[in-house]
Design a protein that fits this description.
The chain is mostly beta strands and about 240 residues long. It contains two helices and 16 strands. It has one domain. Helix content is about 10%, strand content about 40%. The strands form three sheets. Strands 2, 4, 8, 10, 11, 13, 14 and 16 form an eight-stranded antiparallel beta sheet that branches. A six-stranded mixed beta sheet has the order 1-5-7-9-15-12, with no helix packed on it. A two-stranded parallel ribbon has the order 3-6. A hairpin with a 3-residue loop joins strand 13 and strand 14. The longest helix has 21 residues. The N and C termini lie far apart (about 70 Å).
C-alpha cells in the first residue's frame, strides 16, 4: 500500500486508514492464532515524502529467538523528500507468544543533505505524542540479535533493546540505503500503551551533520561579542 501526504498541509502529516483497508496489508497463517501485527494503523511522514509499506506476512507466528532469518516480513520503500522522523504505528493482536518480524527497507534520500547516521526507536504513539518503549518485551531482537542487523552504508552499529544507532558512513543526496533488522512483538502491549491500545510504533530518523557557520558569520559574531564586552566595561 502506498502512503503519501495530502496537499497543502503542515510539515508532518498523519495518514489514517480504516481497519478494513489496513487489514488487507496483513497476510496471516495459522488460523485463529494468526500474526501478531494485524494492520498498519498510522503512518506519519516528513513533508512531501512517500512510502510503500507491506504487505506484512506472518507464516511463522510465535517464532521468537529463531536463529535463522524470520519468514515474517515487513517490507518498506520510502522516499524522504524532506528531513524528519518517519513514524509507523502497527496494530497488534495477541497470538499466545512473541513473534519476530524481519524488516527489509529501502530508503531514498531526496532531502538535499547527506545522511551521516540513522536512529531507530521503538515506542508508542506518533509525532509529539511518541513515548519510548520500556520493560515491555518489545525490542530489536535483543539480546541475541540473530541474524545481525544490517545497513548498506553504515558499518557502525549500536544496538539496544529499544534503540538502534547507525553511523560511520554517509548516504548522499539522491542516494539510497538498504536496511534489515528484526523486531520482537510480544502479547499484552495495551498494558504499556499510554492510551491502552494494542499498538506499537517504529520511529526512524535520518541524522545530518550540524551546519558549520561561514567565516563571515563567525567574524560578525566575534565582533558583536567584543563590542558587548567593551560596553559592559565602560558601564562598570
Amino acid at each position: 500500500m502506498v502512503f503519501a501526504p495530502p496537499q497543502k498541509e503542515g510539515p508532518m502529516h498523519t495518514l489514517r486508514f480504516a481497519a478494513l483497508a489496513a487489514s488487507a496489508m496483513v497476510l496471516c497463517a495459522g488460523g485463529a492464532q494468526g500474526a501478531t501485527v494485524s494492520s498498519v494503523a498510522t503512518v506519519l511522514l516528513p513533508d512531501a515524502s512517500t512510502a510503500t509499506i507491506g504487505p506484512v506476512t506472518a507464516p511463522a507466528p510465535n517464532n521468537d529467538n529463531a536463529t535463522s532469518t524470520s519468514p515474517n516480513a515487513v517490507p518498506y520503500s520510502v522516499f524522504f523528500n524532506t528531513l524528519g522522523p518517519l513514524d509507523v504505528e502497527f496494530a497488534t493482536s495477541d497470538s499466545g507468544g512473541t513473534t519476530e518480524y524481519r524488516f527489509a527497507q529501502n530508503f531514498v534520500n531526496n532531502t538535499g543533505q547527506a545522511w551521516i547516521g540513522f536512529r531507530f526507536e521503538l515506542g508508542y504513539g506518533v509525532g509529539a505524542a511518541f513515548t519510548a518503549s520500556g520493560a515491555d518485551g518489545l525490542d530489536f531482537d535483543t539480546p541475541g540479535a540473530d541474524p545481525a542487523s544490517l545497513a548498506s552504508l553504515f558499518p557502525v552499529l549500536r544496538q539496544l533493546d529499544d534503540r538502534i544507532d547507525w553511523s560511520g558512513g554517509s548516504v548522499p543526496s539522491v542516494g539510497s540505503l538498504a536496511l534489515e533488522f528484526a523486531v520482537d512483538v510480544p502479547d499484552g502491549l495495551a498494558a504499556f500503551h499510554p492510551s491502552q491500545l494494542s499498538r506499537f510504533t517504529l520511529r526512524q530518523t535520518p541524522i545530518v551533520a550540524a551546519e558549520v557557520p561561514e567565516p563571515s558569520s563567525l567574524l560578525l559574531l566575534g565582533g558583536g561579542l567584543m563590542a558587548l564586552g567593551l560596553r559592559r566595561r565602560r558601564a562598570g
